[in-house]
Each structure stands twice: as structure tokens, then as C-alpha cells.
Fold this sequence. Notes:
By secondary structure, this protein is mainly α. The protein has helices at 19-49, 56-84, 92-125, 130-133, 136-162, 179-183, 191-222, 228-256, 266-287, 290-310; strands at residues 9-12, 89-91, 171-172. α2 packs antiparallel against α9 (266-287) and α8 packs antiparallel against α9 (266-287). The longest helix has 34 residues, at 92-125. The chain is globular, with a radius of gyration of 21 Å. The mean pLDDT is 88.
Amino acid sequence: IEKMNNVTEFIFWGLSQSPEIEEVCFMLFSFFYIMILLGNLLIVLTVCLSNLFKSPMYFFLSFLSFVDICYSSVTAPKMIVDLLAKDKSISYVGCMLQLFGVHFFGCTEIFILTVMAYDRYVAICKPLHYMTIMDRERCNKMLLGTWVGGFLHSIIQVALVVQLPFCGPNEIDHYFCDVHPVLKLACTDTYIVGVVVTANSGTIALGSFVILLISYSIILVSLRKQSAEGRRKALSTCGSHIAVVVIFFGPCTFMYMRPDTTFSEDKMVAVFYTIITPMLNPLIYTLRNVEVKNAMKKLWGRNVFLEVKGK
């Protein structure tokens, strides 16, 4: 049977049908997106331009911030423009690219968070071997692994959707192309594809979440042997990591750990992990971290001082 594929574009319903709410959302999300760009760029530059880049924890943190910028940029600009647009459409190819981008950067972020948990585990539970275990070569390999893992995950998701026929309705009750809303529009039975998609996303989300919980539990248990100062420092760092993990994985698990169904709350939940988490990450990591704050003061304070002196 030749597959009918006469849908060349999809129409988004967006976040709201009310122009008043859309205007408020436009202001709000524009502000959020600017904060995402500035906050994460500040972390990337601070880590790369200071001595912190030599430390594995900050090496991974700078890449987490870079991924956050990419991740939110896949959906946020289009959503913000659409809030004021009459025509909220996206081409078929654009939709598939967005689907790929969301899953690629989202999955890479999950893997980076997992690697960061492993890094903290080694630092706290095996402090004497930390620099030999987490040498630069191993860090580079782990980082490459996160990107390769993200790519494999997203290429599977897109391959499953691309081969489906789309011949009829083309309206998506969402503000970006995600697997479940797009599957609903296919002109064929998508049960098998839905199961595979859920298994793919669900295994990664739940598997990583369990690994993270176990590693942070081991860390917290091992803290009992530490001195009061060491315990305080470790708790401060791990506290911020755990906060990010919970904020990101909560909504993620709600979205992808269930069969191929969509809920009306999906859009609000998606806002959380595509916009709120990337915005909160820099705040959580910098406010809770003395070393990052000091590096920022040193680096940016020095540059400002030199500029003033130069004048």
C-alpha cells in the first residue's frame, strides 16, 4: 500500500486560544528565554575563561549550560513568535527537525546529569583517586558518550515517526512537535510505534532517574564519615544537583513514562522542562556554589575594573 503523505505543514494550537493570555505569555516567556540565554552563557564563559574548566564538575556544568541553551532554543523562539502570530504553522520537515532537536538535547541533558552524579560519587566516596579516575581523557569520553546517546535516542524517535503516513488532520494541540501529539495525527494504527516510543523514552528517563537516586543515596550515606566542614560542602553541591534532577525528571517522567496518550496538562508540564528548568539551572548552580560565584567576581570584576581603568 502506498502511503498517503499529503500533509506539508502542521498547525499548532499553541498555549492558549485567548489573545489576552497570549500577550501576557509573550512578555513572560520572552523574559524567561532571555534569562536562559544570559544565565547559561554566563556560566559557560565563566567556566571556560577561568581555572574552573580544569575541574571535571565544572567542565560538565559548562556543557550542561550549553545544552540548556540549545534545548530551549529548539522550542522557545518558535513558541514566543507564535504567541503573537495568527498563523501558527510549521512545515513537515521543520516539525521533524524540532522533534529531533527536543529529544536530542533533552536526552543529552539527562545523560550529562547522570555523568555529573557519577562525578560527585567519585569525588565524595573515592576522594584520593578522584583525579586519576576523572582525568580529562575519561571526561571527554563520557561527554562524547552523552552526545552519542542523545543522538541514537532521537534518531530512533524520528525514524519511527517519519515512516508514518499523514493524510488528514494537521492540527497539533501543543506549541511544539513532540512524539505523542504528532502520533495522534497519523492515518494509521500507531499502537506499536507508540509502545516503542514510550519504551525508548521511558527506559532512558526512568533508568537514569533510578541511577541518579542510587548514586545520590550512596553519597548521602557516605557523608556520615566526613568531617562537619566536608559534609556541609558536599551537601551544598549535591543539594543543588538533586534539586535540578527532581525539577527536570518529575515532568519528564510524567510525559514519557506512559502509553501513547495525551492530556490537556501536557503543555504546561512541557513548559516546565523546556523553559523553567533551563532557566533555573544557572540560578541553582551559581547561588549554591561559592567557587562559581568567586570565579564570576574575579573574572567579570577584573574585566570591568580594567575597562574603567582603561578609560
